[in-house]
Design brief:
- By secondary structure, the protein is an alpha/beta fold.
- The chain has one domain: 3-Layer(aba) Sandwich (Rossmann fold).
- Helices cover 36% and strands 17% of the residues.
- The chain is built from seven helices and seven strands.
- The chain has a seven-stranded mixed beta sheet with strand order 1-7-6-2-5-3-4.
- The relative contact order is 0.24.
- The N terminus and C terminus are likely disordered.
Length: 214
Amino acid sequence: MIVRLWRPTDAAEPVDGAPATTIALVRHGETDWNRERRIQGATDIPMNERGRAQSRAVAERLATSRWDAVVTSPLSRSAETAAIIARRLGLVDPAHVPALAERRHGLLEGLTAEDRLRMEADAVPIDGLESRVSVVSRAVPALLGLAARHPGGAVVAVTHGGVIQSVLLHLWERASLPSGSVANGSVHELRASDARLELVSSDAVVLAEATGTE
């Protein structure tokens, strides 16, 4: 069990003793830039047909459980994924949560992973790159705010690889994850209560591997 405490400042305050809320973090379906291994960040790249198929597949996977709401990052690739999921679950249109938008990558956006490595090797300043601390500082309070609004419920939150990575690294107190572990259409389940986030399961890595336990 992995638990981190958090004191939200700009989200609805969790009520002590409230029943736990399940939150499924889902990464949006594939875009052409994902396929080309280009960094998207805040650039609003739409999903491609493979991404829509991935979204339908994760919707079917989630349909085996009960969910009360679907929310999403405002970026179109996430919002379309969320709409596909909400329709399959028979829920209303997803609410947009700006704090779940992708990590901003500034000058890196549109470049390939190889381009980024070259810039880093040359020590080129990367203007506009949002820190992981900043991502965690907006995303975690937003997730706890969802828990406060849905005590004892279950919410699907569709977001981005950079956001999910940042939250997982915060919970696991790790510096990195295996390359490509937060795949398009992957699911990462959290339990939230009393200003706590607990990681329940993740498509990224086995929890025993993350914690160093058997």
